[in-house]
Specification:
Layout lengths: L1 E10 L2 E12 L6 E5 L4 H4 L1 H11 L8 E7 L11 H11 L5 H6 L1 E2 L2 E2 L5 E2 L4 H10 L4 E5 H7 L6 E5 L2 H9 L28 H13 L3 E4 L6 H6 L1 H4 L5 H13 L15 E2 L7 H5 L9 H4 L4 E4 L7 H13 L1 E6 L2 E6 L3 E6 L16 H15 L5 E4 L5 H6 L5 H18 L11 H4 L4 H14 L3 H17 L7 H15 L1
Parallel strand pairs: 3-4, 5-8, 8-9, 10-15, 10-16, 11-12, 12-15
Antiparallel strand pairs: 1-2, 2-4, 6-7, 13-14
The chain binds zinc ion.
Length: about 500
Protein backbone atom coordinates (compact mmCIF):
# COMPACT_ATOMS: atom_id res chain seq x y z
CA UNK A 1 0.00 0.00 0.00
CA UNK A 2 1.00 3.61 -0.45
CA UNK A 3 1.22 5.89 2.58
CA UNK A 4 2.21 9.51 2.87
CA UNK A 5 3.89 11.78 5.43
CA UNK A 6 5.01 15.40 5.37
CA UNK A 7 8.57 16.51 6.01
CA UNK A 8 10.73 19.57 5.33
CA UNK A 9 14.12 20.18 3.73
CA UNK A 10 16.24 22.91 5.30
CA UNK A 11 18.46 24.99 3.01
CA UNK A 12 20.21 27.86 4.72
CA UNK A 13 17.44 29.46 6.76
CA UNK A 14 14.53 28.30 4.63
CA UNK A 15 12.54 25.10 4.84
CA UNK A 16 10.61 23.65 1.90
CA UNK A 17 7.87 21.03 2.17
CA UNK A 18 8.84 17.52 1.11
CA UNK A 19 6.27 14.82 0.54
CA UNK A 20 7.30 11.41 1.82
CA UNK A 21 5.65 8.58 -0.13
CA UNK A 22 6.20 5.04 1.10
CA UNK A 23 5.19 1.97 -0.87
CA UNK A 24 4.97 -1.05 1.38
CA UNK A 25 4.40 -4.68 0.39
CA UNK A 26 4.67 -7.92 2.29
CA UNK A 27 7.17 -9.67 0.04
CA UNK A 28 9.74 -11.60 2.09
CA UNK A 29 11.53 -12.72 -1.09
CA UNK A 30 12.01 -9.14 -2.31
CA UNK A 31 12.51 -7.53 1.09
CA UNK A 32 14.34 -4.19 0.78
CA UNK A 33 14.33 -0.63 2.04
CA UNK A 34 15.17 1.98 -0.59
CA UNK A 35 15.09 5.78 -0.40
CA UNK A 36 15.09 7.81 -3.61
CA UNK A 37 14.80 11.56 -4.24
CA UNK A 38 18.20 13.18 -3.67
CA UNK A 39 18.89 12.10 -0.09
CA UNK A 40 22.32 12.82 1.45
CA UNK A 41 24.40 10.27 3.36
CA UNK A 42 22.82 10.94 6.77
CA UNK A 43 19.44 10.37 5.18
CA UNK A 44 20.55 7.10 3.55
CA UNK A 45 21.61 5.96 7.00
CA UNK A 46 18.06 6.70 8.15
CA UNK A 47 17.16 3.20 6.97
CA UNK A 48 19.03 1.52 9.84
CA UNK A 49 17.64 3.96 12.39
CA UNK A 50 14.07 3.61 11.14
CA UNK A 51 14.18 -0.20 11.02
CA UNK A 52 15.63 -0.35 14.51
CA UNK A 53 13.22 2.24 15.95
CA UNK A 54 10.26 0.48 14.31
CA UNK A 55 11.45 -2.76 15.88
CA UNK A 56 11.57 -1.02 19.28
CA UNK A 57 7.98 0.06 18.62
CA UNK A 58 7.00 -3.57 18.07
CA UNK A 59 7.22 -3.79 14.28
CA UNK A 60 9.55 -6.10 12.39
CA UNK A 61 10.13 -4.76 8.88
CA UNK A 62 12.82 -7.20 7.76
CA UNK A 63 10.39 -9.14 5.55
CA UNK A 64 8.87 -6.06 3.91
CA UNK A 65 9.54 -4.39 0.64
CA UNK A 66 9.65 -0.64 1.33
CA UNK A 67 10.26 2.05 -1.28
CA UNK A 68 10.53 5.63 -0.07
CA UNK A 69 10.22 8.53 -2.48
CA UNK A 70 10.99 12.08 -1.37
CA UNK A 71 9.36 14.70 -3.58
CA UNK A 72 10.07 17.08 -5.18
CA UNK A 73 13.07 15.10 -6.39
CA UNK A 74 15.20 18.14 -7.29
CA UNK A 75 15.26 19.56 -3.74
CA UNK A 76 18.30 18.33 -1.83
CA UNK A 77 17.35 16.58 1.41
CA UNK A 78 19.85 16.69 4.21
CA UNK A 79 20.20 15.54 7.76
CA UNK A 80 18.37 13.18 10.05
CA UNK A 81 15.14 15.17 10.43
CA UNK A 82 13.41 12.92 7.89
CA UNK A 83 13.63 9.88 10.20
CA UNK A 84 10.34 10.51 11.98
CA UNK A 85 8.13 11.30 8.96
CA UNK A 86 9.49 8.28 7.04
CA UNK A 87 9.06 6.04 10.09
CA UNK A 88 5.46 7.22 10.58
CA UNK A 89 4.64 6.47 6.95
CA UNK A 90 6.31 3.06 7.30
CA UNK A 91 4.21 2.28 10.40
CA UNK A 92 1.07 3.42 8.59
CA UNK A 93 2.00 1.09 5.72
CA UNK A 94 2.07 -1.75 8.23
CA UNK A 95 -1.29 -0.76 9.74
CA UNK A 96 0.27 0.29 13.04
CA UNK A 97 -1.37 3.70 12.78
CA UNK A 98 -4.15 5.08 10.55
CA UNK A 99 -2.59 6.47 7.38
CA UNK A 100 -4.96 9.47 7.48
CA UNK A 101 -3.64 10.52 10.91
CA UNK A 102 -0.10 10.56 9.52
CA UNK A 103 -1.13 12.37 6.34
CA UNK A 104 -2.75 15.21 8.31
CA UNK A 105 0.32 16.35 10.21
CA UNK A 106 3.85 17.56 9.54
CA UNK A 107 6.69 15.70 11.21
CA UNK A 108 10.37 16.15 11.95
CA UNK A 109 12.92 14.43 14.18
CA UNK A 110 15.91 12.13 14.33
CA UNK A 111 15.44 8.61 15.67
CA UNK A 112 17.76 6.72 17.97
CA UNK A 113 18.00 2.93 17.54
CA UNK A 114 15.76 2.46 20.57
CA UNK A 115 13.11 4.75 19.08
CA UNK A 116 13.85 7.85 21.15
CA UNK A 117 13.47 11.16 19.32
CA UNK A 118 16.43 13.50 19.09
CA UNK A 119 16.26 17.24 18.35
CA UNK A 120 17.35 18.55 14.94
CA UNK A 121 18.45 22.03 13.81
CA UNK A 122 16.19 24.52 12.08
CA UNK A 123 12.91 23.79 13.91
CA UNK A 124 11.81 27.43 13.77
CA UNK A 125 12.14 27.54 9.97
CA UNK A 126 10.43 24.16 9.69
CA UNK A 127 7.52 25.22 11.92
CA UNK A 128 7.06 28.36 9.80
CA UNK A 129 7.06 26.27 6.63
CA UNK A 130 4.58 23.82 8.17
CA UNK A 131 2.16 26.64 8.95
CA UNK A 132 2.62 28.10 5.45
CA UNK A 133 1.98 24.68 3.93
CA UNK A 134 -1.32 24.39 5.81
CA UNK A 135 -0.14 21.66 8.18
CA UNK A 136 0.17 23.56 11.47
CA UNK A 137 0.30 20.41 13.61
CA UNK A 138 3.96 19.44 13.86
CA UNK A 139 4.98 16.14 15.43
CA UNK A 140 8.49 16.77 16.73
CA UNK A 141 10.98 15.81 19.44
CA UNK A 142 9.85 17.18 22.82
CA UNK A 143 13.09 19.15 23.06
CA UNK A 144 12.02 21.10 19.95
CA UNK A 145 8.41 21.80 20.88
CA UNK A 146 9.02 25.09 22.71
CA UNK A 147 10.91 26.44 19.71
CA UNK A 148 8.16 25.41 17.28
CA UNK A 149 5.59 27.02 19.58
CA UNK A 150 7.27 30.40 18.96
CA UNK A 151 5.76 30.39 15.48
CA UNK A 152 2.26 31.88 15.47
CA UNK A 153 -0.31 29.27 14.45
CA UNK A 154 1.97 26.26 14.89
CA UNK A 155 0.71 23.47 17.17
CA UNK A 156 3.70 21.30 18.07
CA UNK A 157 3.14 17.81 19.44
CA UNK A 158 6.32 17.16 21.40
CA UNK A 159 7.10 13.44 21.63
CA UNK A 160 9.86 11.52 23.35
CA UNK A 161 9.90 8.50 21.03
CA UNK A 162 8.42 6.96 17.88
CA UNK A 163 6.08 4.89 20.02
CA UNK A 164 4.97 7.99 21.89
CA UNK A 165 4.35 9.80 18.58
CA UNK A 166 2.11 6.95 17.39
CA UNK A 167 0.10 6.99 20.62
CA UNK A 168 -0.24 10.78 20.47
CA UNK A 169 -1.54 10.55 16.89
CA UNK A 170 -4.04 7.89 17.94
CA UNK A 171 -5.15 10.06 20.85
CA UNK A 172 -4.09 7.42 23.39
CA UNK A 173 -1.49 9.58 25.07
CA UNK A 174 -0.80 13.30 25.59
CA UNK A 175 2.18 15.06 23.99
CA UNK A 176 4.82 16.48 26.33
CA UNK A 177 3.94 19.82 27.90
CA UNK A 178 5.38 22.78 26.01
CA UNK A 179 7.03 25.23 28.34
CA UNK A 180 5.88 28.43 26.65
CA UNK A 181 7.22 30.58 29.43
CA UNK A 182 10.76 29.68 28.50
CA UNK A 183 13.05 32.60 27.86
CA UNK A 184 16.40 32.66 26.19
CA UNK A 185 19.21 31.59 28.47
CA UNK A 186 21.16 34.74 27.79
CA UNK A 187 24.22 35.38 29.87
CA UNK A 188 23.98 38.73 31.61
CA UNK A 189 25.88 41.41 29.70
CA UNK A 190 28.65 42.97 31.79
CA UNK A 191 28.34 46.70 32.58
CA UNK A 192 30.33 49.54 31.05
CA UNK A 193 30.89 51.02 34.51
CA UNK A 194 33.65 48.39 34.87
CA UNK A 195 35.74 49.96 32.08
CA UNK A 196 37.81 52.64 33.79
CA UNK A 197 40.49 54.96 32.48
CA UNK A 198 39.55 54.49 28.79
CA UNK A 199 37.45 57.55 27.90
CA UNK A 200 38.30 57.61 24.19
CA UNK A 201 37.67 53.89 23.74
CA UNK A 202 34.34 54.20 25.56
CA UNK A 203 33.39 57.13 23.33
CA UNK A 204 34.34 55.11 20.22
CA UNK A 205 32.16 52.22 21.41
CA UNK A 206 29.23 54.58 21.94
CA UNK A 207 29.60 56.13 18.47
CA UNK A 208 29.75 52.66 16.88
CA UNK A 209 26.68 51.46 18.78
CA UNK A 210 24.74 54.60 17.90
CA UNK A 211 25.42 54.51 14.16
CA UNK A 212 26.14 50.85 13.45
CA UNK A 213 29.78 51.54 12.56
CA UNK A 214 32.80 49.22 12.53
CA UNK A 215 35.45 49.61 15.21
CA UNK A 216 39.15 48.77 15.47
CA UNK A 217 40.78 48.59 18.89
CA UNK A 218 44.58 48.64 19.00
CA UNK A 219 46.39 48.10 22.26
CA UNK A 220 48.71 45.83 24.21
CA UNK A 221 47.37 42.57 25.70
CA UNK A 222 45.32 42.97 28.87
CA UNK A 223 44.45 46.62 28.26
CA UNK A 224 40.72 45.88 28.03
CA UNK A 225 39.89 45.35 24.33
CA UNK A 226 37.85 42.19 24.94
CA UNK A 227 36.28 43.77 28.01
CA UNK A 228 35.03 46.69 25.89
CA UNK A 229 33.81 44.50 23.04
CA UNK A 230 31.76 42.29 25.38
CA UNK A 231 29.89 45.37 26.61
CA UNK A 232 28.71 46.49 23.18
CA UNK A 233 25.57 44.27 23.08
CA UNK A 234 24.43 46.04 26.28
CA UNK A 235 24.22 49.43 24.56
CA UNK A 236 22.74 48.17 21.28
CA UNK A 237 18.97 48.26 20.88
CA UNK A 238 17.34 44.95 21.90
CA UNK A 239 16.06 42.90 18.98
CA UNK A 240 12.50 43.78 17.94
CA UNK A 241 10.01 41.00 17.11
CA UNK A 242 11.17 40.59 13.53
CA UNK A 243 14.87 40.70 14.39
CA UNK A 244 14.37 38.33 17.32
CA UNK A 245 12.62 35.80 15.12
CA UNK A 246 15.39 36.08 12.52
CA UNK A 247 18.17 35.69 15.11
CA UNK A 248 16.43 32.69 16.65
CA UNK A 249 15.89 31.13 13.23
CA UNK A 250 19.58 31.60 12.41
CA UNK A 251 20.79 30.08 15.67
CA UNK A 252 18.34 27.22 15.26
CA UNK A 253 19.45 26.47 11.70
CA UNK A 254 23.08 26.50 12.85
CA UNK A 255 22.19 24.05 15.61
CA UNK A 256 23.48 26.35 18.37
CA UNK A 257 20.16 27.24 20.00
CA UNK A 258 19.82 25.62 23.39
CA UNK A 259 16.67 23.46 23.63
CA UNK A 260 13.86 25.26 25.41
CA UNK A 261 15.38 28.66 24.79
CA UNK A 262 12.80 31.25 23.79
CA UNK A 263 13.19 34.06 21.30
CA UNK A 264 16.64 35.66 21.35
CA UNK A 265 16.08 39.27 22.40
CA UNK A 266 19.61 40.29 23.34
CA UNK A 267 21.88 41.24 20.42
CA UNK A 268 24.14 38.24 19.78
CA UNK A 269 27.85 38.43 20.54
CA UNK A 270 30.03 36.19 18.37
CA UNK A 271 33.77 35.94 18.92
CA UNK A 272 35.23 33.33 16.54
CA UNK A 273 38.79 32.22 17.24
CA UNK A 274 41.44 33.43 14.78
CA UNK A 275 41.98 29.87 13.58
CA UNK A 276 38.40 29.82 12.21
CA UNK A 277 38.08 28.60 8.63
CA UNK A 278 36.41 30.66 5.91
CA UNK A 279 33.27 28.44 5.87
CA UNK A 280 33.03 28.74 9.66
CA UNK A 281 33.15 32.53 9.35
CA UNK A 282 30.96 33.21 6.33
CA UNK A 283 28.94 29.99 6.16
CA UNK A 284 28.88 27.03 3.83
CA UNK A 285 30.39 23.59 3.95
CA UNK A 286 28.79 20.47 2.54
CA UNK A 287 25.51 21.50 4.14
CA UNK A 288 24.61 25.16 3.91
CA UNK A 289 25.08 26.28 7.47
CA UNK A 290 25.05 29.87 8.70
CA UNK A 291 28.54 31.12 9.57
CA UNK A 292 29.66 33.53 12.26
CA UNK A 293 28.78 36.61 10.16
CA UNK A 294 25.18 35.39 9.95
CA UNK A 295 25.03 34.31 13.59
CA UNK A 296 26.18 37.83 14.55
CA UNK A 297 23.29 39.46 12.67
CA UNK A 298 21.64 42.10 14.84
CA UNK A 299 24.58 42.01 17.22
CA UNK A 300 28.35 42.02 17.37
CA UNK A 301 31.10 40.17 15.51
CA UNK A 302 34.30 40.43 17.53
CA UNK A 303 37.56 39.49 15.79
CA UNK A 304 40.26 39.44 18.44
CA UNK A 305 43.90 39.29 17.24
CA UNK A 306 42.85 40.36 13.77
CA UNK A 307 46.29 39.84 12.09
CA UNK A 308 46.27 36.19 13.19
CA UNK A 309 43.17 35.40 11.13
CA UNK A 310 43.72 33.53 7.89
CA UNK A 311 44.17 35.80 4.93
CA UNK A 312 41.41 34.10 2.89
CA UNK A 313 39.04 34.36 5.85
CA UNK A 314 39.62 38.12 6.13
CA UNK A 315 39.16 38.52 2.38
CA UNK A 316 35.86 36.65 2.61
CA UNK A 317 34.62 39.08 5.26
CA UNK A 318 34.78 42.08 2.94
CA UNK A 319 31.52 41.43 1.12
CA UNK A 320 29.35 40.77 4.20
CA UNK A 321 30.79 43.85 5.93
CA UNK A 322 30.01 45.98 2.90
CA UNK A 323 26.67 44.47 1.80
CA UNK A 324 25.10 43.13 4.99
CA UNK A 325 24.59 39.70 3.50
CA UNK A 326 26.58 36.74 2.29
CA UNK A 327 25.99 34.47 -0.67
CA UNK A 328 26.91 30.82 -0.36
CA UNK A 329 27.30 28.96 -3.63
CA UNK A 330 27.15 25.24 -4.09
CA UNK A 331 26.60 22.85 -6.94
CA UNK A 332 22.89 22.77 -6.13
CA UNK A 333 22.56 26.56 -6.32
CA UNK A 334 23.27 29.52 -4.11
CA UNK A 335 21.66 30.85 -0.97
CA UNK A 336 21.78 34.37 0.42
CA UNK A 337 21.99 34.73 4.18
CA UNK A 338 21.82 37.93 6.25
CA UNK A 339 25.09 39.20 7.75
CA UNK A 340 24.41 42.60 9.30
CA UNK A 341 26.45 43.18 12.44
CA UNK A 342 28.61 45.65 14.33
CA UNK A 343 32.21 44.63 13.67
CA UNK A 344 34.80 45.08 16.38
CA UNK A 345 38.32 44.08 15.42
CA UNK A 346 41.13 44.09 17.95
CA UNK A 347 44.88 43.77 17.58
CA UNK A 348 48.12 44.28 19.42
CA UNK A 349 50.29 47.17 18.24
CA UNK A 350 53.05 44.69 17.24
CA UNK A 351 53.65 40.92 17.19
CA UNK A 352 55.05 40.82 20.74
CA UNK A 353 52.26 43.02 22.04
CA UNK A 354 54.60 45.61 23.55
CA UNK A 355 53.93 48.17 20.84
CA UNK A 356 57.31 49.88 20.66
CA UNK A 357 57.48 50.43 24.40
CA UNK A 358 60.41 49.36 26.56
CA UNK A 359 59.63 45.64 26.52
CA UNK A 360 59.18 45.39 22.73
CA UNK A 361 61.69 43.33 20.84
CA UNK A 362 60.07 43.43 17.40
CA UNK A 363 62.03 44.52 14.35
CA UNK A 364 60.41 47.44 12.57
CA UNK A 365 59.78 45.42 9.38
CA UNK A 366 57.96 42.75 11.39
CA UNK A 367 55.73 45.37 13.00
CA UNK A 368 54.85 46.82 9.60
CA UNK A 369 54.17 43.37 8.12
CA UNK A 370 51.99 42.52 11.11
CA UNK A 371 49.88 45.65 10.78
CA UNK A 372 49.63 45.31 7.02
CA UNK A 373 48.34 41.76 7.30
CA UNK A 374 45.26 43.00 9.13
CA UNK A 375 44.85 46.30 7.39
CA UNK A 376 45.07 45.12 3.78
CA UNK A 377 41.65 43.57 3.31
CA UNK A 378 39.70 45.18 6.10
CA UNK A 379 41.03 48.57 7.07
CA UNK A 380 39.11 50.43 4.40
CA UNK A 381 35.95 49.00 5.98
CA UNK A 382 36.70 50.26 9.48
CA UNK A 383 34.96 53.52 10.47
CA UNK A 384 36.37 54.19 13.89
CA UNK A 385 39.74 53.30 15.34
CA UNK A 386 41.13 53.86 18.78
CA UNK A 387 44.45 53.15 20.48
CA UNK A 388 44.26 51.95 24.03
CA UNK A 389 47.04 52.57 26.51
CA UNK A 390 47.36 51.21 30.01
CA UNK A 391 45.88 53.86 32.32
CA UNK A 392 47.91 55.10 35.26
CA UNK A 393 46.93 53.57 38.64
CA UNK A 394 45.82 56.94 40.01
CA UNK A 395 43.43 57.37 37.03
CA UNK A 396 41.97 53.93 37.70
CA UNK A 397 41.41 54.86 41.32
CA UNK A 398 39.41 58.03 40.69
CA UNK A 399 37.65 57.23 37.38
CA UNK A 400 33.94 56.53 37.91
CA UNK A 401 32.68 56.14 34.35
CA UNK A 402 29.06 56.02 33.24
CA UNK A 403 27.07 52.79 33.40
CA UNK A 404 25.65 50.85 30.48
CA UNK A 405 22.17 52.23 31.25
CA UNK A 406 23.32 55.87 30.90
CA UNK A 407 25.19 55.31 27.65
CA UNK A 408 22.35 53.20 26.27
CA UNK A 409 19.89 56.10 26.72
CA UNK A 410 22.04 58.33 24.48
CA UNK A 411 22.49 55.54 21.91
CA UNK A 412 18.73 54.89 21.78
CA UNK A 413 18.00 58.62 21.35
CA UNK A 414 20.49 58.77 18.46
CA UNK A 415 18.94 55.65 16.93
CA UNK A 416 15.49 57.24 17.10
CA UNK A 417 16.74 60.24 15.11
CA UNK A 418 18.07 57.81 12.49
CA UNK A 419 14.84 55.80 12.45
CA UNK A 420 12.97 59.03 11.70
CA UNK A 421 15.21 59.46 8.62
CA UNK A 422 14.63 55.82 7.73
CA UNK A 423 18.23 54.58 7.74
CA UNK A 424 20.94 53.61 10.21
CA UNK A 425 23.92 55.93 9.59
CA UNK A 426 26.38 53.09 9.02
CA UNK A 427 24.19 51.86 6.15
CA UNK A 428 23.36 55.13 4.37
CA UNK A 429 23.81 54.41 0.64
CA UNK A 430 26.36 56.62 -1.09
CA UNK A 431 23.74 58.31 -3.28
CA UNK A 432 21.74 59.33 -0.20
CA UNK A 433 24.69 60.57 1.86
CA UNK A 434 24.26 64.22 0.95
CA UNK A 435 20.54 63.92 1.65
CA UNK A 436 20.83 62.34 5.11
CA UNK A 437 24.18 63.80 6.11
CA UNK A 438 24.61 67.14 4.30
CA UNK A 439 27.84 69.02 4.98
CA UNK A 440 27.93 72.85 4.98
CA UNK A 441 30.87 74.81 3.55
CA UNK A 442 32.88 74.79 6.76
CA UNK A 443 32.43 71.02 7.15
CA UNK A 444 33.28 70.41 3.49
CA UNK A 445 36.52 72.38 3.89
CA UNK A 446 37.50 70.16 6.82
CA UNK A 447 36.79 67.00 4.82
CA UNK A 448 38.70 68.30 1.76
CA UNK A 449 41.69 69.13 3.90
CA UNK A 450 41.64 65.66 5.48
CA UNK A 451 41.41 64.09 2.04
CA UNK A 452 44.54 65.96 0.89
CA UNK A 453 46.47 65.38 4.08
CA UNK A 454 45.63 61.67 4.48
CA UNK A 455 45.18 60.59 0.87
CA UNK A 456 41.79 59.12 1.75
CA UNK A 457 39.89 56.92 -0.67
CA UNK A 458 36.34 57.91 -1.65
CA UNK A 459 35.13 55.09 0.55
CA UNK A 460 37.08 56.53 3.47
CA UNK A 461 35.49 59.93 2.91
CA UNK A 462 32.02 58.42 2.91
CA UNK A 463 32.79 56.72 6.17
CA UNK A 464 33.81 60.04 7.74
CA UNK A 465 30.54 61.59 6.58
CA UNK A 466 28.48 58.75 8.07
CA UNK A 467 30.33 58.86 11.40
CA UNK A 468 29.95 62.68 11.55
CA UNK A 469 26.20 62.16 11.11
CA UNK A 470 26.20 59.81 14.11
CA UNK A 471 28.24 62.19 16.26
CA UNK A 472 25.73 64.96 15.44
CA UNK A 473 22.86 62.60 16.31
CA UNK A 474 24.46 61.77 19.66
CA UNK A 475 24.70 65.52 20.30
CA UNK A 476 21.01 65.90 19.41
CA UNK A 477 21.88 68.14 16.47
CA UNK A 478 19.95 68.16 13.19
CA UNK A 479 22.84 69.75 11.32
CA UNK A 480 26.35 68.35 11.13
CA UNK A 481 28.73 70.98 12.54
CA UNK A 482 32.53 71.28 12.11
CA UNK A 483 33.28 69.78 15.57
CA UNK A 484 31.33 66.66 14.57
CA UNK A 485 33.35 66.33 11.37
CA UNK A 486 36.59 66.98 13.22
CA UNK A 487 35.85 64.15 15.67
CA UNK A 488 34.89 61.82 12.81
CA UNK A 489 38.23 62.58 11.09
CA UNK A 490 40.11 62.07 14.36
CA UNK A 491 38.57 58.63 14.96
CA UNK A 492 39.14 57.70 11.34
CA UNK A 493 42.81 58.56 11.86
CA UNK A 494 42.85 56.23 14.83
CA UNK A 495 41.88 53.47 12.44
CA UNK A 496 44.60 54.08 9.87
CA UNK A 497 47.48 55.52 11.91
ZN1 LIG B 1 56.81 44.22 19.85
Amino acid sequence: MLTRAHAFALTGLDATPVEVEVYTADEPKNACFTIVGLPDKALQEARSRIRSAAFAAGLNTTESLMLVNLAPAEVRKEGAGFDLPIALAVLAGHHQVDERLVDEVAAVGELAFDGRLRPVPGILSIAEAAVRAGRPVLVCPSACAAEAALVPGCRPLGCVSLQHAVRVLKGEQQPEQVDRGATALDEPIPDLADVRGQPSARRALEVCAAGGHNLLLVGPPGVGKTMLAKRLPGILPPLDDEAALLATRIHSAAGVLSPGAGLLRVPPFRAPHHSATTPALVGGGTRIRPGEVTLATGGVLFLDELPEFRRDALEALRVPIEDGHVRISRASGSVQLPARFNLIAAMNPCPCGGGGSSGCTCARERVIAYQRKASGPLLDRIDVGVRLERPAPEVLRVDRPESTATVRDRVFAARERQAARGCINGQIPVDLLDHHAPLDDACTRLVDEAERRLALSPRGLHRIQRVARTIADLAGSDAIAPPHVAEAIAVRLGAIA
